[in-house]
Structures are given as structure tokens and as C-alpha cells.
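Exercise 7b. C-alpha cells:
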């Protein structure tokens, strides 16, 4: 519990983020997308209504698109292709991005959108919580917090990140060095209602610089600098009278009759933390670097810090990060920050200088008439040319670290997606646009060993697009390239290990949960958990690649037991094809909500329903929730697809099987599917699909699962009879039998055990939930209309 004073007490959360501004909230969402538990501490009790930053650049817009955030903003905000370098006009519209230019979104709106997204994903945001103390203690961080009510709390976490602005408390308490220079010149800024002055875009007067822009709501933002006027050491924001006086001195106009809504000053200070990580404490955004917010680069730089850090830190706390992954955050972002601060310093000198910079401005204006110069500066200002090279930035790997330019992809007949949409689940991507090229089939097979962290997508792309030019490309969750085909196949495996860790598979065991250790030894069944994370975490498992035989738009699907494992993979796969998915669970509400959140984050639709199968009234309780949710989402209660996936295993010898255990296995594995189908027929549309997940153990033997195998054999028999009964309505009923399928349990961390189990398959590997989900997706589609009453062996050729 928060408030503990025992330094050895269990952690309260995995990550604490200090600061609930846009940078902290984006980081919180990224962490949740990666499965990390996160608490955000915000000193203010109510969010600030000040919009210090209003400009989003192309790279930030791409990042927002990668997470599905642009739709949340609402109608696309105004875009201005015009940019500037130190007040000298230049065109930003020529960069290679669908979002070239400057996009005007008030910071308050950006924060609202990020807050909604992060909390939907499960981040906990605590307003009125101020950090007052900070200590690192071995493998934990202890944060002392004072609440708005005056209470003192102590929160333990594995990592703490300061996103608390240029006056960062985290930076001070953790004693980060912060070298640089203080401001020598400043701009006064105010939002003023009730004035009518001309719009000015960096208009230079003999005595200073003036900027004015009237917003659609009638408020005018003014900024003014008088040449030669030094920055003031301020302990509070300036008075509006000071802005009025300096505006009059520079322009000769009187704006004193207006009503000030917000007044502040910002200078040309330039400081950067010497490191972005000290042990288990990290910095991002203005906590890590202070710069003049000229050209709107400051907020964008911070948001891109968060995008870089989030997936890496989530992998670290989940225990799936390769060695030194978290160190690459400092290596990459410190170098980028230095470039941006240099760029801003040059702009500040040109912008705020008086007559002494006139000649320099003339030369720059001449240079900016040349396309090559504009492309160079526009690429840096917009962020699209800022390379996250880090430890992978060797000169013989020219693509590593560059961001992948967004492009449309065709994944099947009528199935069009984009690189940004494919990144929404927060996983890595291997995109293959030349699947028949030599070595590509082997590459995809090898990448499948990272299926829990890297999604393999075979797709067509426009010839002039970057994915097509590269042929095959491995993309990190932040949209930056980890490997491209030109770097050679050996480098692909190096990149997979460098960025995603050792091969480790997805989620659940269908035919061998906690079984099949070498020599017949049994291991204990692990606590319920999701992929690639320790017990109690909720790492997100991305949906499988989109199917190529059709879509499920406007379909509804019920998948029982879909909070984890094969069921989760099936739910995500069907949602990726357009179906509205009912995620059923029995106990683990958090895991079910995580599944739903992951589907929604990827642009899909889902809701969760709880029902304990095998208990009295189980089917009625299930369908009460299903129909209530369907009515809310669609206005009706009709189903198109039913997947009977939920089941339990025995795991004991025949001699130790009790009548109570036998009855329980029958109730959950055989009785419940029968009556679920019976009940579903009231609302199942003609032409619907019923798919039962059974087991390869109905075809090969494991004496410790006799009773379990019997129940699955009963379900296969049921499927054949129901198939005959429902054929007149065009409803197909089929069975899918998985074999050894990875559940992320301890046994799958044992290379010797995995090797033993892999040898059972003709493909010499264990199965993944995505392997089963792809089969189910086919049987749920119209392409399977001529298959019914079938038993589909999805064991990977086990014991052929």
C-alpha cells in the first residue's frame, strides 16, 4: 500500500512518472501499452489551462498516428506549411511525411487526449501529489510524496521518471548535473482578449521583434522582444503592464485595453542534463533539457523522448529487455537533444539579435531559397530526420535508427492498412514487401521466435514507398528502423536480439500446460499471467498479422476464456479483422481489461464479460452480459461467431483423478460448450460460425490428461453433430486442435525443455497462440464456408 515506511516492503508500482503534462502522460501510456504498471504524480490539483505550446511537428504527428491518438483529437487541426528558421520564412511542407508542416493543437487539448488514452490503458494519475523526497535503494526507488491534504506518503517503485519540467524536482533531488547557460534574452508572451491588432509573423521593427496571431476564439497571442533588453531573473511571471509597455516601445501600439488571460516570459537558456539516466531514475522532456521554445520544437522534443523511453522501460520492468536496452535511451535521446538545442541556439541568435545579425539573416535568407538547404533544416525542425542511432548506429548500418516513413500497405484482397496502424499495438514489426525473395521465408520463420514482441506482416506497397524500397525492414515499437534488408540477413538476427532480447514465445499451452519436460518430469503450473511478463504483470500481446482471405467488418464474435493465451490471441485476431469481440473471462478482470484496452489501442472494438463456467447458471450469466454489451455497442443482440476456447486441465495421474476433478473437467470443458452453442442459436445469424478449441491430446497420448482428453473428444463429437443439425442455416461448426503451445510459463524459459517440446513438431518449434488464432480467423471468415464438421489439426505436425 502507498504510505509504507518499510524500505523492504513490496513495490507499490513498477514505474512512477512525476509530472502529468503531455510528456509524462505519453510516457505513461507507452508504459501501459508495454505492460508496465505505472503511477503518475502531479503536483497540481487541477490541470493548468495555459497552452504554452501549440505546435505539433510532423514526427510527433506520426507518433500520435502510431498510437491512434489523432482520431481522439477530433477533426484534423489546422496545418500551416510555413515554418521559419530564426524568424526567416521557410517551407516545411516538403518533408517526406503525410503530416508535413506545423499542426496547431493547444497544449491543453494535447494533454486531455493523452490523459484519456493513458488512463484507459490503466495508468493511475494522482493529482495533488507533490514529490518531496527521493532515494534509490538497491533494486528500488523510494519516493516521498506530500498530498494536497497534507498527508505524507512513501511510494516504492522499480523506476522513477522525471517529466516535471525545466524546474524539475526529480532532477534536483537525484542530483543530475545540468550544465549549460542561463537566459540572456527573453520574449514576453501573453494571451489577450479584446484587442484588434494586425497579425504579425516575426515582424522586425527598429527596436525589436513582435509576433501576433488571432485565434478562432478571438483571443490574440502576442510575443515581443526589445533588442538589447536582457533577460530578467524572475521569481514570478511578469505583469501584463510590462508586456504592454514593451509592446508599445517596439510597435507603437497600445494593447493595454485588452484583458490578459495568461502572461509569461521565456528566455534563451540552454541546458541539458549530462545524462538522462542515473541508476533507476530517468529524465524526459524539459526535465532533461531546457531550451527556448522557438519554432515549437521544445514540446515535440519531449514527446519524442517519451516515445523512445516508454517501450524500452516497459520491457525492462517486465524482464524481457536485452542487455543495455535501457541505456540506449540516454545514448539516443541525449545526442538528439544536443542537435536540437544547437539548432534552437542558432535560431535564437538570429531571431533575437538586432542590427548585428542583419548580414547573417541576409545570407540565411539567400540559402533558404535553395531546396537542399530547406530540406536539411525542415527535416531537423520537423523531427523526421533526427536519427535514433544509439548502440546500433554503426556506419555500416545506414538505415539503423532512422524513422520509417509512413506508408500504406496491402495485406490481402481489399485489406489496406498502414505502417502507423500496424504499430498501434506497441509491438515491433517485420514488414516483408518482397516475400518470394531468397532468404525471406527463412527470415520470417526466424522472426516468429519473437512473435510475442515482433509482428510479421507480408504486404504489398507502392513502389516509391520506403517499405517497398527496403524490401524487408524490422521496425521498433517507436517507429524507428532496427534493420533493413540491405544490411544483410545475419544483421537481422543481431537486431532482433539487440532490441527485443532472446527468442521467447507468446502465451498459452493448449495441449501441454506446464508439461512435457525432458524425461517426463513435471513442472508446477505458473500463476495466471500474460505474455512475456512476470506473474502479476499485464504485458500486451499484439494481434497476429491480418488474414488475407477476407475481413470480418460488421461481425460480432464471442470468444470464451479470452483474457489470456490462445483466447486472447484469437480475440485480437478477430478484432484486427473488424469484428466487435466479446472478451469473456472467469476471474482475472485485469487481464481481460488489458486485452480489451490492447484491442482498442490497435483500432479495434471489444468489451469484457465475466462468467464462471461450470457453475450453476453459468451460460445464462454469460449471455446476459453478452447481450447487454452487444445492445450497447450495436443496438441489437445478434452474434456471428462463437469460439468455445475456455477450458481447464487435469494435470494428475489416472490413479489420482478424483470424481470431483472429473466432474469439474466435464462441466467446464464439455457441458459448458454444449449449452453455450445451444443458447447462442437464439441470436446466431444464419451463415454464422462456431469454432471449438479442442486438443491434440485426442490424437496422441499423455496419461496425466486422460480426463481432459476425454472432454475434448466429446467436444469434437459435439461439433460433428451440431454441424449436421445447423447446415440448413448455413452455420458451420468446426474443431481446432492445438498441440504444445507456449504460455510463457517457467518451462518455456528452459532451453532444454523447449528443445525437447519443439522436436515433437514437424516444424521443430513449439506453437504460438498466433498460429492457432490464424486458423480460427480463417474458419471465422467467408473463405471457410465449405468446411463444416471438420477436425483441424493445428499441432504443427506433432508426432507425425
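Sequence design result:
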Amino acid at each position: 500500500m502507498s504510505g509504507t515506511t518499510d524500505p523492504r516492503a513490496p513495490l507499490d508500482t513498477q514505474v512512477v512518472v512525476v509530472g502529468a503534462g503531455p510528456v509524462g502522460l505519453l510516457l505513461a501510456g507507452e508504459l501501459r501499452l508495454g505492460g508496465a504498471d505505472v503511477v503518475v504524480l502531479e503536483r497540481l490539483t487541477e490541470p493548468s489551462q495555459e497552452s504554452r505550446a501549440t505546435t505539433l511537428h510532423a514526427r510527433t504527428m506520426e507518433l500520435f498516428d502510431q498510437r491512434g491518438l489523432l482520431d481522439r483529437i477530433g477533426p484534423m487541426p489546422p496545418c500551416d506549411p510555413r515554418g521559419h528558421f530564426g524568424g526567416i520564412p521557410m517551407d516545411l511542407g516538403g518533408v517526406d511525411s503525410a503530416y508535413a508542416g506545423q499542426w496547431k493543437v493547444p497544449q491543453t487539448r494535447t494533454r486531455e487526449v493523452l490523459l484519456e488514452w493513458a488512463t484507459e490503458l490503466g495508468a493511475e494519475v494522482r493529482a495533488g501529489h507533490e514529490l518531496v523526497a527521493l532515494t534509490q535503494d538497491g533494486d528500488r526507488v523510494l519516493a516521498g510524496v506530500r498530498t494536497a491534504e497534507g498527508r505524507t506518503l512513501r511510494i516504492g517503485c522499480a523506476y522513477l521518471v522525471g517529466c516535471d519540467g525545466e524546474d524539475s524536482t526529480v532532477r534536483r533531488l537525484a542530483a543530475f548535473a545540468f550544465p549549460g547557460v542561463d537566459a540572456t534574452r527573453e520574449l514576453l508572451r501573453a494571451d489577450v482578449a479584446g484587442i484588434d491588432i494586425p497579425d504579425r509573423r516575426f515582424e522586425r521593427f527598429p527596436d525589436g521583434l513582435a509576433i501576433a496571431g488571432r485565434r478562432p476564439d478571438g483571443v490574440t497571442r502576442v510575443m515581443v522582444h526589445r533588442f538589447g533588453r536582457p533577460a530578467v531573473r524572475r521569481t514570478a511571471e511578469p505583469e501584463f503592464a510590462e508586456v504592454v509597455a514593451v509592446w508599445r516601445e517596439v510597435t507603437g501600439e497600445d494593447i493595454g485595453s485588452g484583458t490578459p488571460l495568461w502572461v509569461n516570459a521565456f528566455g534563451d537558456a540552454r541546458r541539458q542534463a549530462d545524462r538522462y539516466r542515473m541508476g533507476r531514475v530517468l529524465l524526459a522532456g524539459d526535465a532533461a533539457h531546457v531550451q527556448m521554445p522557438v519554432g515549437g520544437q521544445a514540446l515535440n522534443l519531449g514527446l519524442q523522448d517519451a516515445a523512445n523511453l516508454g517501450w524500452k522501460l516497459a520491457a525492462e520492468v517486465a524482464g524481457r529487455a536485452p542487455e543495455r536496452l535501457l541505456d540506449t535511451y540516454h545514448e539516443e535521446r541525449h545526442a538528439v537533444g544536443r542537435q536540437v538545442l544547437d539548432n534552437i541556439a542558432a535560431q535564437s541568435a538570429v531571431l533575437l539579435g538586432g542590427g548585428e545579425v542583419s548580414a547573417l539573416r541576409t545570407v540565411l535568407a539567400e540559402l533558404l531559397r535553395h531546396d537542399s538547404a530547406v530540406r536539411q533544416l525542415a527535416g531537423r525542425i520537423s523531427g523526421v530526420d533526427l536519427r535514433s542511432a544509439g548502440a546500433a548506429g554503426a556506419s555500416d548500418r545506414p538505415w539503423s535508427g532512422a524513422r520509417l516513413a509512413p506508408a500504406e500497405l496491402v495485406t490481402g484482397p481489399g485489406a489496406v492498412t498502414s505502417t502507423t496502424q500496424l504499430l498501434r499495438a506497441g509491438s515491433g514489426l517485420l514488414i516483408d514487401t518482397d516475400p518470394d525473395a531468397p532468404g525471406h521465408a527463412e527470415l520470417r520463420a526466424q522472426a516468429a521466435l519473437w512473435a510475442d514482441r515482433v509482428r510479421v506482416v507480408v504486404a504489398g506497397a507502392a513502389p516509391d514507398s520506403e517499405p517497398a524500397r527496403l524490401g524487408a525492414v524490422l521496425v521498433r515499437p517507436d517507429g524507428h528502423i532496427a534493420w533493413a534488408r540491405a544490411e544483410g540477413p545475419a544483421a537481422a538476427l543481431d537486431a532482433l536480439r539487440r532490441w527485443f532480447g532472446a527468442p521467447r514465445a507468446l502465451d498459452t499451452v493448449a495441449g501441454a500446460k506446464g508439461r512435457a519436460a525432458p524425461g517426463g518430469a513435471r513442472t508446477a503450473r505458473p500463476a495466471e499471467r500474460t505474455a512475456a511478463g512476470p506473474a502479476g504483470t499485464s504485458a500486451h500481446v499484439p494481434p497476429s498479422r491480418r488474414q488475407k482471405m477476407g475481413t470480418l467488418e460488421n461481425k460480432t464474435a464471442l470468444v470464451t476464456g479470452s483474457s489470456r493465451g490462445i483466447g486472447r490471441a484469437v480475440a485480437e485476431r478477430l478484432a484486427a479483422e473488424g469484428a466487435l469481440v466479446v472478451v469473456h473471462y472467469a476471474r482475472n478482470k485485469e487481464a481481460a481489461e488489458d486485452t480489451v484496452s490492447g484491442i482498442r489501442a490497435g483500432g479495434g472494438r471489444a468489451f469484457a464479460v465475466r462468467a464462471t463456467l461450470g457453475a450453476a447458471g453459468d451460460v445464462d450469466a454469460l449471455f446476459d452480459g453478452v447481450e447487454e454489451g452487444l445492445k450497447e455497442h450495436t443496438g441489437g443482440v445478434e452474434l456471428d461467431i462463437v469460439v468455445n476456447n475456455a477450458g481447464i486441465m487435469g494435470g494428475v495421474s489416472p490413479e489420482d483423478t478424483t470424481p470431483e476433478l472429473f466432474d469439474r473437467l466435464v462441466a467446464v470443458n464439455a457441458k459448458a460448450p454444449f449449452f453455450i452453442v445451444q443458447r447462442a442459436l437464439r441470436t446466431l445469424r444464419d451463415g454464422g460460425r462456431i469454432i471449438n478449441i479442442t486438443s491434440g491430446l485426442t490424437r496422441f497420448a499423455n496419461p496425466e490428461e486422460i480426463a481432459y482428453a476425454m472432454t475434448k473428444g466429446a467436444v469434437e463429437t459435439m461439433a460433428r453433430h451440431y454441424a449436421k443439425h445447423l447446415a440448413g442455416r448455413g452455420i458451420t461448426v468446426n474443431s481446432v486442435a492445438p498441440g504444445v503451445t507456449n504460455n510463457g510459463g517457467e518451462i518455456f524459459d528452459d532451453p532444454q525443455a523447449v528443445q525437447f517440446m519443439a522436436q515433437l513438431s514437424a516444424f521443430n518449434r513449439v506453437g504460438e497462440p498466433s498460429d492457432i488464432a490464424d486458423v480460427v480467423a480463417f474458419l471465422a471468415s467467408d473463405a471457410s464456408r465449405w468446411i463444416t464438421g471438420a477436425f483441424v489439426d493445428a499441432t504443427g505436425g506433432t508426432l507425425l
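Instructor comment: The longest helix spans residues 327-352. The CA atoms of residues 93 and 100 lie 5 Å apart.
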